[in-house]
Amino acid sequence: MKKISIVGFGRFGKVLYRLVKDDFVVTVYTRKPINSGTEISPNTVLTNSIQDIYKSDVIFFAVPIDAFESVIKAHKKYFIPGHLLIDVLSVKLHPRSVFEKHLKGSKTQVLLTHPMFGPDSSRNGFDGLPIIMDRFKADETNYVFWKNYFTNKHLHVIEMSARDHDRLAANSQGLTHFVGRLLDSYGLRPTQIDSLGTKKLLEVIDQTCNDSWQLFTNLQHFNPYTKRMRMELGDTYDRLYNKLLPKQHNPHYITFGIQGGKGSFNEQAIHDYVEKEEIKHYRIKYLYTTAAVMRALHTGEIDFGQFAIHNSVGGIVGESINAMADYRFTIVKEFAIKISHALMIRKDATLEDATTIMTHPQVLAQCKATLARKYPQLAQTSGTGILLDHAVVARQLGCGKLPKEIATMGSRILATLYGLKIVEVNLEDAKENFTIFLIVTRT
After folding, report:
1. Are strands 44-47 and 342-346 parallel, antiparallel or unpaired?
2. Terminal alpha carbon distance of the chain
3. Distances, alpha carbon 173 to alpha carbons 167, 219, 408, in Å
């Protein structure tokens, strides 16, 4: 009987052993104890000695993909021309490049295979299960022997190059494992009204998530075609998601969602935009934060979003940059308006009552030097949630929801809207103080 060795006795190593154990003298290399329930045939040797492996004619490598190169590197001093090395990895270009790198000039033979089954799919036998074969560095005799052997075991042999394998596998095995993990993370679970299609999806979860996370990430990282698959899958999801949204939130008018509230510079900016674009039928949703604007745009609650992106003094609007990173969108228009800031307090307060200025971080950045010179006694802070918007601060200050100790800053329009008292105007550090706004829509 031909002597073969199996390096690695994990989930697939055990499947491979079931396939070959009755036909060869088998040496199994494993550093872990064998489970008591594992059936070991009389013609099998268990070893943790690397030298014992290479007493065999044929060596199968059933090791994790990310460990493969380190194993080959550690073992290559034992390779001789009479050996045939066979990998069973789920990717093929990676082992091919590893063998080319470490067997340069060697006469050791190599056969690339991918048995496209595992513990679950081979539970009831091997009949009809596919196995990919790439002759690579094996001679005709060895290649024909193993092709015939797999055929005689009733496997479906598919002869294919490593490159073709990985290209096709990315959109079959790679895609299936990705979707299985996606559905599992989503939390798809059986219910009493499951259709046949739902049951099939649950089967996909069962088949893919029984494999280790290590195998999943290896399939995604070591196949050069899976990255493109994931990107195309994401693009397809976005297109399908957007098709489900109405072309316009309300067919009678355009809905704009803006970063600020009533009286904010965002409101001033959107009025400036619609006037220049001669848009007659529109409504404004006051969403107060860029994150809320982007979320509403994504869910189809608005048709266009607007937010500030940059100021000539304060620089980048960090709030907007952080929110933009979470969504895909298209920029429709970029424009700027001149900004002027006023300091305001409650009508029943005096400046001596105020201890803190609460407003948007950008307002504080645009007035930093002036505030330090004129109002050093006032602490500076920004609110959280919708209080990040200075128009909301002004509204709550005006209706008494914020104490007299709080002052705010922003457009002088806020004083008129919410009954505040203006302490001083034009507190911006630069006379030419412009803020750039973006009008965006869904991609």
Report:
1. unpaired
2. 64
3. 11, 8, 58
- The answer to whether 112 touches 147, Cβ cutoff 8 Å, is no
The pLDDT value recorded for residue 45 is: 92
- Report whether pLDDT(19) > 70: yes
Calpha distance 51→78 (Å, rounded): 7
Cβ–Cβ contacts within 10 Å for residue 85, how many?
24
Other Cβ atoms less than 10 A from the Cβ of 189: the count is 10
| pLDDT tier at 34, thresholds 50, 70, 90 | confident
User: How many CB atoms are located within 10 Å of the residue 257 CB?
Assistant: 27
Q: Rounded distance, CA 131 to CA 399, Å?
A: 74
Strands 25-29 and 342-346: unpaired
Question: Rounded mean pLDDT of the chain?
Answer: 95
In the chain, the largest separation of any two C-alpha atoms, in whole Å, equals: 100
Structure tokens at 305: 């979003």
443 near 328, Cβ under 8 Å? yes
167: left (phi over 0), alpha (psi -120 to 50) or beta: alpha
208 and 181 in contact (C-beta within 8 Å)? yes
Buried b (16+ CB within 10 A) or exposed e, 89-104: bbbbbbbbebbeeebe
CA–CA separation, 37 vs 213, rounded Å?
24
Q: What is the 3-state secondary structure (H, E, C) of 328-343?
A: CCEEEEEEEEECCCEE
Torsion of CA 70, 72, 74, 76, to 10 degrees: -160
Ordered structural domains, the chain, with CATH: 3-160 (3.40.50.720), 167-243 (no CATH), 254-339+437-441 (3.40.190.10), 342-427 (3.40.190.10)
In this structure, the dihedral spanned by the alpha carbons of residues 414, 418, 420 and 423, taken in order and rounded to 10 degrees, is 0
Query: What CA–CA distance (Å, rounded) separates 83 from 325?
Result: 53
Inform me whether the pLDDT recorded for 267 exceeds 70.
Answer: yes
Confidence (pTM): 0.79
- Extract the runs of DSSP E, i.e. beta strands, from 347-403: 356-358, 379-381
